[in-house]
Write a structure and sequence with these properties.
Layout (H helix, E strand, L loop, with lengths): L5 E7 L8 E7 L9 E9 L2 H8 L10 E2 L3 E9 L9 E5 L14 E4 L5 E2 L6 H23 L9 E3 L5 H12 L4 E4 L6 H7 L3 E3 L16 E6 L3 H9 L1 E9 L13 H5 L3 E4 L6 H11 L8 H4 E4 L4 H9 L6 E5 L2
Parallel strand pairs: 9-10, 9-12, 10-11, 12-13, 13-14, 15-16
Antiparallel strand pairs: 1-2, 1-4, 3-5, 3-7, 3-16, 5-6, 6-8
Helix pairs in contact: 1-9, 2-3, 2-7
């Protein structure tokens, strides 16, 4: 099936030492990065990695021009794999899209069929994009935490960076599973939003200017952490015996200035969560997002924008001025 020319938001190399320049270009299919599967994009999510890429920070994108967007939902136009039929609804995230290959910020995306996951029944294209890499990260965190023995009757679960996209979905899922959630945020006006997602308590981050104690009062049965750095070390120090923490972000720094004492004396567990996981694990976890991990409050988390709003929305995300999940609607 031939497609007409279409719009895409592409990053172009800036002048030497300057950040990349993002603009909407009109493209044809043969200008997309290689792949055997063409998808008509319905929605694409905004992620912190996309915001970093637009600003030229962290050397996220190394070859230009590049269409951004590390996750997308849409329908198959054509595919080399006969199991993915035209019109089938799918989701794609990770595998280098938006970074090493063109991503979701376009009316069409071309990817490899090995990267494409058919949508589980009961998840719409809009909700698939609201979930996206963020929802999968939240679900994967809880999946492995429960694999390590976490249960609702063991006590509170702390969620840090609580107004972020992953954290908001995690709070929602935890609440549906019967956990008591304590949300930690530095945004003083966010408490009504977080309680509406299901948080039983909302607390500010601690003052860690004097450093992190090896052990603190045992409060948390689990921690879902998107911040890293000293805040993660503080959370580990406050885990109960046999507590478990899932770590997937480093907005607060990549160093971990803590102690081995919580691991030795309390037997706590620290899980690293890599959302760019193999497809068999995705096929196991995504159906849970349509079943026992299904969020109930995505409408509170989601904001849908149109393509012209995309550059400003990414800049706001980088400036920590966004809350929840923003998705851009392409069709």
């Amino acid at each position: 099936m031939a497609i007409s020319r279409f719009k895409a938001y592409r990053l172009h190399a800036g002048a030497e030492g300057a950040p990349p320049v993002g603009r909407f270009d009109t493209l044809s299919e043969d200008q997309l990065s290689p792949g055997d599967t063409l998808i008509k994009v319905a929605y694409a999510g905004l992620n912190y990695k996309d915001a970093l890429a637009q600003a030229g920070q962290g050397r996220i994108v190394r070859e230009y021009p590049r269409i951004g967007g590390i996750d997308l939902s849409g329908t198959i136009v054509h595919c080399a794999d006969p199991s993915l039929a035209p019109g089938q609804e799918v989701v794609v995230h990770g595998f280098g899209i938006g970074v090493d290959a063109d991503g979701g910020y376009a009316e069409y995306a071309r990817v490899r069929h090995e990267w494409v996951l058919p949508l589980p029944a009961g998840i719409s294209l809009r909700d698939a994009a609201v979930l996206g890499a963020a929802g999968y990260t939240a679900a994967l965190s809880l999946h492995w935490m429960e694999h390590c023995g976490l249960r609702p009757d063991q006590g509170e679960v702390l969620v840090t960076g609580a107004t972020g996209g992953v954290a908001g979905i995690a709070i929602d899922i935890l609440g549906q599973r019967g956990y008591s959630v304590c949300a930690m945020t530095g945004k003083g006006d966010a408490e009504p939003y977080l309680r509406a997602l299901g948080a039983a308590q909302v607390i500010p981050p601690p003052d860690l200017s004097a450093g992190v104690k090896p052990l603190a009062s045992a409060r948390w049965s689990g921690v879902i952490d998107s911040v890293g750095g000293a805040l993660l070390a503080h959370a580990l120090a406050g885990l109960k015996p046999d507590g478990v923490a899932a770590s997937f972000g480093n907005a607060g720094g990549s160093d971990l200035p803590g102690s081995v004492i919580p691991f030795i004396l309390r037997g706590v567990k620290l899980l690293g969560i890599n959302a760019n996981s193999p497809m068999p694990l995705r096929r196991e976890v995504w159906p849970r997002l349509a079943a026992d991990y299904r969020p109930a409050r995505l409408d509170r988390i989601a904001r849908v924008i149109d393509p012209p709003e995309l550059p400003q929305a990414l800049a706001a995300m980088l400036g920590r001025a966004s809350t929840g999940r923003t998705v851009v609607r392409f069709s």
